[in-house]
Amino acid sequence: MKTHTLLMPLDMHLHLRDGVMLENIAPLSAYSFSGAIVMPNLVPPVTSLEDVQAYKKRIMAAVPNDYFEPYMTLFYKNYDKKFLESVVDEITAIKLYPAGITTNSDGGVSSFDIEQMRETLEAMSELEIPLCVHGETDGFVMDREAEFMSIYELLAQNFPKLKIIMEHITTKEAVAILDKYENLYATITVHHLLLTLDDVIGGMMMPHHFCKPIAKRPEDLDALLSVALEAHPKVMFGSDSAPHPQHKKEASGCAAGIFTAPIALQILCEIFEQYDKLENLQAFVSDNAQNIYGICPEFKEVTLVKEEFIVPEKYANVVPIYAQNALAWSIESVE
Ligand code: NCD
Ligand code: ZN
Question: Most buried one in 28, 88, 261, 293, CB count within 10 A?
């Protein structure tokens, strides 16, 4: 039976939520990943040292039996340097959301006035805190990410020492800008390596394929595949696995977010094998992220086997992508 082993898989963009949801889903990521960048868009968002420390404790309490490192983040505000110095040891990055652009982002940034952001972004550059960005404008939904490229350029030019991570990129425009600035990096989800808008609304409307940013055109999918499959050194895997209870997805107003965490590695194996690029998966799911973030996760070895896996109908009250469908790979062992 064909197997493939991954060392220290990392999920560089993950929503773990809080309360019962956290308790239900965190163990799933902790099983197959060594660590994850944990998003701060709780209600209310994570904005203080106390918030970060308390949230990390709740995460660790939810994953008692596995080794898993939650790399903590703060929700971007125009913080001053003194505050950033006080939190730098507790966080791995700061996540910036444009106000109101996605789930729980109301307290985000409403104007990209570089001068207003200068103190914070210069302090982050000095303290070597990466900036993770949800890069969408409030324009027409299919153009939001492409329109944001000028803001990425402005940030990259004004803060050349700041590591800027374009989160969950979905367009050929984002792929094209990656090599233009030394300080730009990107995460890519598993669902954006599979879906186009057709898979969301081209036939029956698929609530479990709906997320922000929305899946784009075939040429965008091709551009994402080209950098992911080559494990471009500035690109890393970040699932953006974003669980919502079933009743919030299968509703007249469907919440944005796709739940992929427990099956992400299995699906990635299938995609990389399909293109005969399995040898690059290790860099995409771990090595690149270790280099970019300068992190050194504890040892974990995940062996996948080419054996059919039927995706469960639900994990607790969350419906995953491809529920009840067969995947080609399953996880054989984790050590
Ligand atoms: C995320 C969520 O549900 O928190 N939703 C999503 O569609 N990706 C927020 C985000 O990352 O945009
Ligand atoms: Zn997200």
Answer: 261
User: Ligand 1 centroid vs 78 CA: distance in angstroms?
Assistant: 22
The pTM assigned to this predicted structure is 0.98
Residue 3 Cα, ligand 2 centroid: separation in angstroms? 30
Q: Which residues are catalytic?
A: 240
- The residue extents of the domains of the chain are 3-334
Q: Which fold has domain 3-334?
A: TIM Barrel (3.20.20)
| Ion ligand 2 — residues with CB < 5 Å | 240
For 280-302, write each residue's pLDDT tens digit: 999 999 999 999 999 999 899 99
- Predicted confidence at residue 102, as pLDDT, reads 87
The model's pLDDT over 15-49, given as tens digits with 9 standing for 90+, comes to 999 999 999 999 999 999 999 999 999 999 999 99
Residue 169 C-beta-side C-alpha neighbours within 13 Å: 35
User: Is residue 66 scored above 70 in pLDDT?
Assistant: no
